[in-house]
Amino acid sequence: MRRGQALAPRVALVALAPLLLGAAATEASGPPGLQACRLRGVEHPAWCGTVRRPLDPARPAGPSIDVHVAVLPALSRQRKPDPVFFFAGGPGQSAIDLAGPVGRLLARLSNRRDLVLIDQRGTGRSAPLRCDGDDGADRPLREAVDAEAVQQALRRCRDALQRLPHGELRQFTTTIAVQDADAVRRALGAGRINLVGASYGTRVALEYLRQFPQAVRRVVLDGVAPPDMALPAAFAADAQAAFDALLAWCEADAECRRRHPQLRAQWQALRASLPRAVTLTHPLSGRDEVVTLTAGVLAGLVRAPLYAPALAAGLPVAIEQAAAGRWTPLAGLALALGGGRAGAVAQGQHFSVVCSEDAPRLDSDGAARPAGDFGALAETYVRACADWPRGVVPADFYRIGPAPVPVLLLSGAIDPVTPPRHGERVARALGARARHVVVPAAGHGLLALPCVRDQVFRFVDADDEAAALAADGGCPATRPRPPVFVAPGAAEAPR
Question: How confident is the model at residue 2 (pLDDT cuts 50, 70, 90)?
């Protein structure tokens, strides 16, 4: 693929009417071409606008799209010149829809630095690639858990997206999205910027660092998802490791062992009973539905709570209840991290990225069908990517070289999707300017921890590289898992 930035026309900032949140403009003056707006969950006014970009960087005179950007301006009058660019996860999340929680998590940084949120192409309002049901609409559970129904829905979505003016699905790779991000940097007049990536956003940050190293000052990677991880196979293996660790913890923890002495056997019996018909309560309609539970559906129900240790602490009792035929606790845990509109994933963009960047590695590595309790999770991707349009990914995309600037990598020790093994490998490749911090008993997404936020602030705010890499937020070296969940009124465990 040719480097699109060499072919792109002059970047133009286009004012965006405040459709985001319908607030009146303020008197505050922002960068030229941006308009005052209000973002949901953000107390202070922001600046919003769009950057016009070619859909295909190799055809600058061809169809174009508007990449939407929001800037949360620094509150201090003594602003630093290097803004913070935040890259959302998924792939498929809208960074602008996350303005409220992200603004709170990075509040100390945004006191003196502008915080820039970009709806990556295919997400949010930037040529969105949304499928029916992305927003958690009230549709029958049968359609969500039946593998064939899921594939049919994805095919319908793919066909509908390809009929859109921006429906050339091969043009939604991370590599091209990063070129959009640098166009935003130039439009804002920023020289060097700080990158903060979360989950898939860490892949975006690494690719930005590869393509535009001269424009980067610091990089923070929260939950490292390297470009070569072959996502479907990796998350099956990583979820298996996290679940095995949970079972081992329960067997070693006195209280969990007393309350759930047969947990491993109960899990194995559940697995052996599949497929089977079970009754689940729809979370929105409240209606009971009979669905066919498969190994893939059960794996998905268990994997979701593993993201947050506080939720994972409820899995032992939920598995025990499921073994007795009561599925509501397990389904409730699985839906607890739903995230609503702000956390919604644009499935069209998600599959355009994964099928272009990860699926080819599954094909070449022969890892398309991982074994174990969570192996079936990869099947959705294997089938969908078989005929999903794939963009061209440069070979260098998968290579990580020595970092030219300080990089802080953050991993949760029991993260089921981006565990420390990925961060360790990336840190070695980045070399002497990388520091990898592993937080014990932590799950996915460490910016929620105060000590991590403090370390990130010190890392970015430090004037020199040595001080940045030496920054410490005081996270404890040892940290227990949350205790096993005990339902109110539960009987005392046998001793």
Answer: very low
Cis peptide bond prior to 275, omega within 30° of 0: yes
Pairing state of beta strands 64-72 and 46-54? antiparallel
- CA distance linking residue 433 with residue 82, whole number of Å: 19
Q: Which residue has the tokens 């099947």?
A: 379
Contacts of 428 (CB under 8 A, 6+ apart): none
Domains in the chain, please, with CATH? 4-129+170-227+396-470 (3.40.50.1820), 130-166+228-394 (no CATH)
The DSSP result for 40-104, as a single string, is TT-SS-EEEEEEEEESSTT-TTS-EEEEEEEEE--SSSS--SS-EEEE--TTTB-TTTTHHHHHH
H or E element: which one contains 190? none
Q: How many CB atoms lie within 10 A of CB 185?
A: 22
User: Is pLDDT of 159 > 50?
Assistant: yes
Q: Does residue 15 register a pLDDT over 70?
A: no
Residue of 475, 478, 477, 469 lying closest to 220 (CA atoms): 469
Q: Enter the pTM of the model.
A: 0.91
Cα separation values, 13 from 16, 188, 279, Å:
9, 9, 52
Q: How far is the CA of 330 from the CAs of 29, 304, 312, 390, 479, in angstroms?
A: 50, 10, 10, 36, 26
- Point out the least confidently predicted range of 79-88, 286-295, 332-341: 332-341
Identify residue 480 by its one-letter amino acid code.
P
Residue length of the chain? 495
Query: What are the counts of helices (DSSP H) followed by strands (DSSP E) for the chain?
Result: 18, 12
Where is pLDDT greater, at 11 or 416?
A: 416
261/218 Cα distance (integer angstroms): 48
CB distance 196 to 455 below 8 Å: no
